[in-house]
UniProtKB/TrEMBL annotation, chains A, B, C, D, E, F:
Transmembrane segments: none annotated. Keywords: Acyltransferase, Amino-acid biosynthesis, Transferase. NCBIfam families: cysE, EPS_EpsC. Residues 1-29 are annotated as: Disordered. One of its GO terms (cellular component) is cytoplasm. This is serine O-acetyltransferase. SMART domains: SATase_N. The keyword NADP does not apply. Residues 33-137 form the Serine acetyltransferase N-terminal domain. It comes from Eucalyptus globulus (Tasmanian blue gum). GO terms for molecular function: serine O-acetyltransferase activity. Its EC number is 2.3.1.30.
Amino acid sequence: MPASELRPQTPAAAQPPPPLQPSDYEREEEEFVWTQIKAEARRDAESEPALASFLYSTVLSHSSLARSLSFHLGNKLCSSTLLSTLLYDLFLSAFSSDHPLRAATVADLRAARARDPACVSFSHCLLNYKGFLACQAQRVAHKLWNQSRRPLALALQSRISDVFAVDIHPAAKIGKGVLFDHATGVVVGETAVIGNNVSILHHVTLGGTGKAGGDRHPKIGDGVLIGAGATILGNVKIGEGAKIGAGSVVLINVPPRTTAVGNPARLVGGKEKPKEHEEVPGESMDHTSFISEWSGYII
Amino acid sequence: MPASELRPQTPAAAQPPPPLQPSDYEREEEEFVWTQIKAEARRDAESEPALASFLYSTVLSHSSLARSLSFHLGNKLCSSTLLSTLLYDLFLSAFSSDHPLRAATVADLRAARARDPACVSFSHCLLNYKGFLACQAQRVAHKLWNQSRRPLALALQSRISDVFAVDIHPAAKIGKGVLFDHATGVVVGETAVIGNNVSILHHVTLGGTGKAGGDRHPKIGDGVLIGAGATILGNVKIGEGAKIGAGSVVLINVPPRTTAVGNPARLVGGKEKPKEHEEVPGESMDHTSFISEWSGYII
Amino acid sequence: MPASELRPQTPAAAQPPPPLQPSDYEREEEEFVWTQIKAEARRDAESEPALASFLYSTVLSHSSLARSLSFHLGNKLCSSTLLSTLLYDLFLSAFSSDHPLRAATVADLRAARARDPACVSFSHCLLNYKGFLACQAQRVAHKLWNQSRRPLALALQSRISDVFAVDIHPAAKIGKGVLFDHATGVVVGETAVIGNNVSILHHVTLGGTGKAGGDRHPKIGDGVLIGAGATILGNVKIGEGAKIGAGSVVLINVPPRTTAVGNPARLVGGKEKPKEHEEVPGESMDHTSFISEWSGYII
Amino acid sequence: MPASELRPQTPAAAQPPPPLQPSDYEREEEEFVWTQIKAEARRDAESEPALASFLYSTVLSHSSLARSLSFHLGNKLCSSTLLSTLLYDLFLSAFSSDHPLRAATVADLRAARARDPACVSFSHCLLNYKGFLACQAQRVAHKLWNQSRRPLALALQSRISDVFAVDIHPAAKIGKGVLFDHATGVVVGETAVIGNNVSILHHVTLGGTGKAGGDRHPKIGDGVLIGAGATILGNVKIGEGAKIGAGSVVLINVPPRTTAVGNPARLVGGKEKPKEHEEVPGESMDHTSFISEWSGYII
Amino acid sequence: MPASELRPQTPAAAQPPPPLQPSDYEREEEEFVWTQIKAEARRDAESEPALASFLYSTVLSHSSLARSLSFHLGNKLCSSTLLSTLLYDLFLSAFSSDHPLRAATVADLRAARARDPACVSFSHCLLNYKGFLACQAQRVAHKLWNQSRRPLALALQSRISDVFAVDIHPAAKIGKGVLFDHATGVVVGETAVIGNNVSILHHVTLGGTGKAGGDRHPKIGDGVLIGAGATILGNVKIGEGAKIGAGSVVLINVPPRTTAVGNPARLVGGKEKPKEHEEVPGESMDHTSFISEWSGYII
Amino acid sequence: MPASELRPQTPAAAQPPPPLQPSDYEREEEEFVWTQIKAEARRDAESEPALASFLYSTVLSHSSLARSLSFHLGNKLCSSTLLSTLLYDLFLSAFSSDHPLRAATVADLRAARARDPACVSFSHCLLNYKGFLACQAQRVAHKLWNQSRRPLALALQSRISDVFAVDIHPAAKIGKGVLFDHATGVVVGETAVIGNNVSILHHVTLGGTGKAGGDRHPKIGDGVLIGAGATILGNVKIGEGAKIGAGSVVLINVPPRTTAVGNPARLVGGKEKPKEHEEVPGESMDHTSFISEWSGYII
């Protein structure tokens, strides 16, 4: 999340629109990842006939990542009253026409592959990661929200919450290269902002403060790592490259490159002079060393 | 939760039956809320054709809130072995014949609308809130349980847990005007009692103490607020208007209008003379100020 | 979990294969439990016609526990792109040919019945317990993983995570007589090992340490009890008969028959001379007394 | 078909309404047939576990014939855009409130049982005869048509035609005790009238004369038998107790108790003095003797 | 069917491609019909809430006739192994890119409306006429056949035959403004050709002559009317504006504007000097007068 | 049909059981055809990605023809109250254990390939021919009927009639190498017998004579060809190698190698000295030359 996100936000309408065409880099990235996914799916279909039908219908019969993802999301999120064809159409229309959406998808696939040792391939993430899928669907809901198609955006949120147990408000802003690992139980509120290259584990809450409306949810800076079960409440800033320990309950601002742990969370090294780390934890994914360290402080 | 709930419970059979007819107030409330829901759905159907089919099938084609809700629950909770028609019939029969059930539904809709700033309309809650839907379905399961139709009640519990990731035992007693916000991961045990006007966030557990049967789950008084991820274990009493902080682990009685936070939870202000607050936290929904305060105590 | 599990593991290929035939004890156990299940289902079908169709299709029309369970899992876990017939075939082939798999199923049914006071019958567990069902499906995924059918194993994991909100890596090793109670939100990583007669509550995480591969998840000894919401991270050993308190965050080895509680978790009685208990907590299921005791230590 | 049907029809609105309550005879008939159906279904469920789930869901879980039939029709005729719950509701509302509809159903069940030697039981007809099911659904469509709910009536006609390959216009009037045997390919036009105790084989057309509107389809008297593949075109009268040979093409009035055969159809015995028979062919179901006889005439 | 169709056919590849853009007339026609359909659907949705969901999902939520039709066909023809999203995509891609396909659809809607007195609106035909729907789907299958995507074309034929009981080989050529009335049981062989403005009733067969391949099915000229149950076998020519009586079995060429009736069919007026009629029977739809006339000849 | 079939039938129980094992010829035939089917499906999957998922799920993921066919039939014939898994199990159990059933399937595939010029491959028949599929399902229903599992056999008949519009009583006996071409509208009664190498077109009825039970349906000899729309009524014998013209209505015995045509049907060449042909029409499939010839006789 660039620093600007942490300043009072410019209304969406006032922001410069994205360039009309994807950059060469984006195009190459998308092409590369899609080529990989097809190669992986082809290899898996050959080695495992029982899965081949699934792989052909979800990946190999499609001419682009946008189509494959739209098909998969449409089939996952449909219900007897929200048909797969309708959802497929909705997703396809969004992903086809909005290259920054696709670039975010590609960055998320890269993130899962780079940071999660259990992620054995891009196609594994595309097909099986509920956090990845929930995030892509939320981005489309977010687009609908910004187009003032709010009832539809909220209906999507509800389907995502039912199907994936991931509940992200369509108004929440999510950056690129985000990894929702395992993802079950993630709750992200309406005015939350999540920066780029953030990693968020399951059962994480970015929650509000009460029944008043307004800007009331956390702002998560670029490169932050939030451990499993952490609860962050209120319009607090988690600075770039900060770490939040598993199970922490955070109600305070956390400065960049520092670590907060515990219930209630405190800064490792102390409030006055918190210890700073060098690496970007959202990318290095070191979940535990800092907690051990902190435990050392207090035990 | 009236004090009587906290005393050894009279068996259901011995309790006075509800009046045969809804009161004028109940009738008007139901009429008002249903009229609102239809107006909202009509407005949304007009502005969003992609959602109109969903809104007509779930709301606008129905002649009453009971029918709309039964249809929606039947379609959400059905499976290939428990057909939607069977569940629809079951829900419709319960809601049609039992006006206190309907009054509780109306009170829950009111609660969501009043307390959750993200709840933009009654229909948004009716259609999209898994906590609301799980709670209504549990009330029907509870009715079946009390009619000694226990295998069916347990099958419903299982469907609710699969579909909504909300696991409330059918024997648990739930008051009116209850808000399960986000709701994913809520677990409520067999002998738990939840009073009126309670607000419970996601990942909250009202759990038991072990493998012995008997009365072994928490009793939550009226107006209580339980923060995200709180775990309350055993037959403890959480007094009227108490607050339980997010992420707390509570194994003690919490007196009325006091606050418990932390793992293990302690009373803010201390065990001997806990600080009392004025407002009803289940309604004011102040999730954070008290924790900050408490943090101040211990950091 | 036998001690051998805690030693560097022999590759699966090198382990002695299970005996070709089930022992008499296993056969009798399976027969006994299946006979009970059918009797329970028949009783319930008679008393509750609305459930009879469900009970006949899932239990009473089948000639064995393996068929009933395969049918039920196939119908629960199928999707529009992974058909029930395919999954049924897959499960049936696994359960029919692998008697240790069936013996583990039977032991799990026994465990639920013995330890969970809300479990009123074997059929209640078989039909309605998502933790039980997720565990049986994971065992089949584990078998596929060991047969190098990894894409299929991962697809199963994804379906289990979508449907039950239980996310167990197919490579994780799970013993017999395991109870996943409520189960929503359980996450178990790739190199985790869970011993025999373990009880694990909902929202429990057995997680990794970061983005490096290798042996990085907890090893849970036989008879351990892990309370709701506990997070155990890294390649730590939780010794036989240990208890982990609800909501704890554990990053340390926990010696046999000791108790760890809190965030971060500490041993009850202190690191140097932790208090030892006599009972097997995974079986006695005492979730709270030790925490109260510990609370006493620190408050 | 009473003679009055053959006279210029009184508009539906002008006809005397049916008595408000079923007669004792109707009540007893319905009770008798429903009791039989349940006994048959129970016997079959006991002898054939693989069918028990089907029999419980369609018959044994229901408290009345109206509910069982509505459930079965709702599940047979539903589609992804016309949900089973909606259709169930529609059918149940019609059958519950309209006892002549139910009496016609009972008479049709009696007719199949009495006239079709392959009909082994009432439940066999109720569950498996597409002609019976299409006819019951058409009666409901007819009721909707008369209530000026024509788009819905036509949508039902379309579903019946898709599912059963039986295409009967909702405006067509059908008497009681009618047997559509095999039924595939039956087409009945908008202004056709079918009397009581008529038997109609598969591939029978009661068609119109061209593109002009108005009264343009056949009127079939009581007790008529129409053989397989017969085509009757135009506003012709087939008199009471007449027979139409298989494969005939009929464009003429056929007097009561006479036989028409051939393509184009001629009266057996000649136009001037056709041979009259004694029995009611719609009930005796003699499909062939008369044709042989006729063949004798012309070969 | 222009005379050229009756000459040895030029291979598809050699035919001049259709113009790249629809003509103004086609555009206006499509626009007019689509506007009508939406107005009809809106009116029906308002008057019949039980059908509104269906009408919104199939018509009112779509931005074009091509989308509405593709959605409806995709949902009608899908199966558990050929998903609606896949079929929707296939249909949409064909209809969007091929304006002559859309023009044929519009002409067929016009034909049903003009010739069938039971066709009360364009939307009635679009939504409910299996003959119309089967014909549109066949045209897409025909396009696939010509693109050498034969396995897919044959799979579509199979679905159309299962769902609509209409079995038209994808290689058959069908003109514009064709009405398949009722349609159940229609069979059209591989080398059949059907001209423009033809009307074909149900159970009509355009069949082959035996097991030899090659050009072996009927060629039906423009404006022909084929009555219910007629069977036309072999590579015979049914001249422009000819009529074939219901139930006829035709193995001979039928000259333009003449009538063939009977089994085996003969020309009305005699082989040598058949009677000629003035009107275009495929449009006037006079099914019966000529047969009566003919009956007069032979009785 | 061997002559013995035409004699009073020995009860099934008294017939010699089939040999326990398939002959080498049967084994090789099955192997050959299955190998072909897989090769065809693989070729089609490669050339048509949109169909690959279908081909993998129905053919390429299966290890035998019996499994592939059982899967396909289970998915085609299932309904919301008769699940695909149940039907799959039923079909698989029949085909796996009964090699004569499989040999008949193979002979039918051979017949379609040899006789129908539109049948481009074995897999085309297996996947797309409703006549083939209905016949295989009927054979399983027949087996159930003979095992006194009549309610299940009748439920299957009903599903086959709904899904394929092919209505064959489960008691009817059908030989090997039978081709039901197009098949829509075929009706075959309870006591009908169909010999080997018979070809039957669509809309053919083998019907009964009235409401009396007993042996009342046609017996069709080996090698018979029955044209489209022919109706054969009563316990008549159609001798080996006879032909029945399209649209004929047959109520008489037809001697071997003779031809019957017309309504009512007469023997070509006259009753006394009918013309005999040399070829086996069920195999040569000459549908028309004989009718033309006959037409010559009578026009």
